[in-house]
Amino acid sequence: MFHVLIADPISDEGLDVLYNNEDVTVVKETGLKPDELESRIEEFDGLLVRSQTKVTRSVIEKADRLKIIGRAGVGVDNIDLEAATENGIIVVNAPNGNTNSAAEHTMAMMMALSRKIPQAHSALKNQKWERSKYVGFEVKNKTLGIVGLGRIGTEVAYRAKGQRMNVIAYDPFLTEEKADQMGIEYGEFEDVLKKADYITVHTPLLKDTRHMISTDAFKQMKDGVFMINCARGGIIDEDALYDALVSGKVAGAAIDVLEEEPFQDHKLLELPQVVATPHLGASTVEAQESVAVDVCHDVLNHLRGDIVKNP
Ligand code: NAD
Ligand code: MLT
Predict the structure, then answer these.
(1) Best mutation site among 203, 205, 213, 279 for ligand 1, i.e. most ligand atoms within 8 A of its Cβ?
(2) Neighbours of 207 (CB within 10 A)
(3) How far does the centroid of ligand 1 lie from the alpha carbon of residue 204, in Å?
(4) How far apart are CA 225 and CA 21, in angstroms?
(5) What is the tens place of the pLDDT at every residue in 191-244?
(6) Cβ neighbours of residue 158 under 8 Å, at least 6 residues apart?
(7) pTM as predicted
């Protein structure tokens, strides 16, 4: 009998893959505190999380029978991969199921930022009809700089072209030929910083990408640039972004993710030119079903000794 712990909210359509199997029991306990997770983890063969639960080395070292950690989503930065590998635990994710939702959210955030929709909406809800205060910018003919042209960055590029934007992208795996095929401009990191009117980041959070948008990077950007981060907190240095917003170097920022989550009380959120959502990039019915189904299949397969799709 395999025992699987569901530690974060995961769509029921995915969990149905695990339920109704005679060899699997499922325990759903979301919102466990770190010490509670540490004391319970030894009971389980499988662990399923989204991004809230931090699967640290101390959790992993107490996970005597754990064979697999499933991440219902893309980013595995909340899981200590080194500790998992050392302890013979496989980590699987669901890299494709939320690509579309994250790309749509990025576009929604860019448009909200450009047209000051959240600010105007709040004012109107407070009985303030302030048409002249909320004059925005068109995105048409502006340049969108994309840092990280993977699954989501690519979908954002196609959508931006649909909005008649020029797109320049930097990714270590992007070639000029591929950029030509996509009808976008190939650039080095510095080219993106210098040429873009809007910059959106879509890299994973890695040692190399942590704070890659730094004070020095902001200095190279156009005055009045707009920043979007629907990838991971920490890719943009938040103190540097704050200073760049206060000085007016950056005209506005749209943020779905911050270094410390959940976030409520953060200096960036006090600035009127910042629009924010609480890590909603993948929060659609479609994406949550899709990532949950994918990851639950992999967990079940691995526990039964079959091949997994997304190690
Ligand atoms: P992906 O792996 O398909 O793409 C990431 C790309 O970043 C790759 O092409 C890679 O070559 C590139 N990259 C790596 N290092 C780089 C660097 N130093 N400079 C430039 N590019 C670099 O991943 P994805 O599915 O497109 O996801 C992108 C990000 O979005 C991840 O951080 C993921 O966790 C995050 N995400 C967030 C949400 C959300 O809810 N906000 C939803 C889904 C994904
Ligand atoms: C991801 O990396 O897939 C995202 O952060 C989405 C999520 O899990 O909420």
Answers:
(1) 203
(2) 5
(3) 4
(4) 53
(5) 999 999 999 999 999 999 999 999 999 999 999 999 999 999 999 999 999 999
(6) 182
(7) 0.96
Cβ–ligand 1 distance for 262 under 6 Å, the answer no
The ipTM of this complex is 0.99
| Token pair belonging to 118 | 């959240």
HEC string for the chain? CEEEEECCCCCHHHHHHHCCCCCEEEEECCCCCHHHHHHHHHHCCEEEECCCCCECHHHHHCCCCCCEEEECCCCCCCECHHHHHHCCCEEECCCCCCHHHHHHHHHHHHHHHHHCHHHHHHHHHCCCCCHHHHCCCCCCCCEEEEECCCHHHHHHHHHHHHCCCEEEEECCCCCHHHHHHHCCEECCHHHHHHHCCEEEECCCCCCCCCCCECHHHHHHCCCCEEEEECCCCCCECHHHHHHHHHHCCEEEEEECCCCCCCCCCCHHHHCCCEEECCCCCCCCHHHHHHHHHHHHHHHHHHHCCCCCCCC
Using alpha carbons only, what angle is made at residue 150 by residues 138 and 74, rounded to the nearest 5 degrees?
A: 105
The one catalytic residue in 71, 202, 232, 302 is 232
Cα 258 to averaged position of ligand 1 atoms, centre (Å): 15
Which atom in ligand 1 lies closest to the alpha carbon of residue 206?
A: 15
| Token pair belonging to 218 | 């902001």
pLDDT tens profile 124-147: 999 999 999 999 999 999 999 999
C-beta separation of 30 from 9 below 8 A = yes
